Amino acid sequence: MDVALRRMRPEDISQVIEIEHEAFSPGWVGTQFRRELSSRRCRFLVAYLTDEDNALENAEPGDAGNPVDSSMWGRMVRGVRSVFGGSGGEGSDRLAGYVGIWFQGDQAHITEIAVRESLRGQGIGELLLIGTVRAAYEQGLEEVTLEARVSNFIAQRLYDKYGFNEVGIRKNYYADNREDAVIMTTDQIHTGAYREKFTTLQERFFERYGEVSIEI
């Protein structure tokens, strides 16, 4: 998988805003990324493409280090070609998605998570979620929490896979259409059961997509 994960940098902001605008409705209140990057209570992680010109153009499906099927490979190549005709500026990483995290008390709260539309279905959202849980471990926090639209069943299935449980509803939470939000929270992440579950899920992810560099 020719994607890696790292902390967001100031030079990433323009691309992150592009992804935010694409992923969320016009009624979404944009995040003050530059201000929040300087806060110790916030963290943003970005998924970025690594050596896409060589890796995606020249490697073949099934090559060592690229254990993806041909349909997945084709979607990734087409996505890169369509999205990155020159965006991001010379020398900058080509971003595929991002996640925002607030550290609140004993919780890591996901404020937003988004992937470029043409690169969805490639495991990038799952990679961002893995990075979030790792950040929570690094901070010594107990839980990871988030809100999801009640209609967003795809996202809810991913969160359920990683041990998020529905714990409540926020009525009329989303400004664009007054849709309710499902509040989802993990079990205590430092328990043996959750650590074992998370380790197994990471191993399965790497088996499917290959090893991925994660810097949180």
Task: Write a compact overview of the structure shown.
By secondary structure, this protein is of the alpha+beta class. It has helices at 13-23, 33-37, 52-58, 70-83, 124-138, 153-161, 192-209, and strands at residues 3-7, 42-49, 94-104, 107-115, 143-149, 164-170, 181-186.
- The side-by-side strand order for the widest beta sheet comes to 1-2-3-4-5-7-6
Radius of gyration equals 17 Å
Order of helices and strands: EHHEHHEEHEHEEH
How widely separated are the two ends?
18 Å
Main sheet, how many strands, which sense, barrel?
7 strands, mixed
Helix percentage:
25-40%
Structural class: alpha+beta
Indicate the overall shape: globular
Task: Give the overall pLDDT as a whole number.
Answer: 84
Number of helices: 7
Taking pLDDT < 50 over at least 5 consecutive residues as the criterion, the unreliable ranges are 53-87
Q: What's the β-strand tally?
A: 7
Measured by DSSP, the beta-strand proportion falls in: 15-25%
Can you walk me through this structure?
The relative contact order is 0.18. The protein is 37% helix and 25% strand. The chain has a 7-stranded mixed sheet with strand order 1-2-3-4-5-7-6. The model is unreliable at 53-87 (pLDDT under 50). The chain contains 7 helices and 7 strands. It has helices spanning 13-23, 33-37, 52-58, 70-83, 124-138, 153-161, 192-209, and strands at 3-7, 42-49, 94-104, 107-115, 143-149, 164-170, 181-186. A hairpin with a 2-residue loop joins strand 3 (94-104) and strand 4. It has 216 residues and is α+β, with helices and mostly antiparallel strands. The radius of gyration is 17 Å and the shape is globular. The two termini are 18 Å apart.
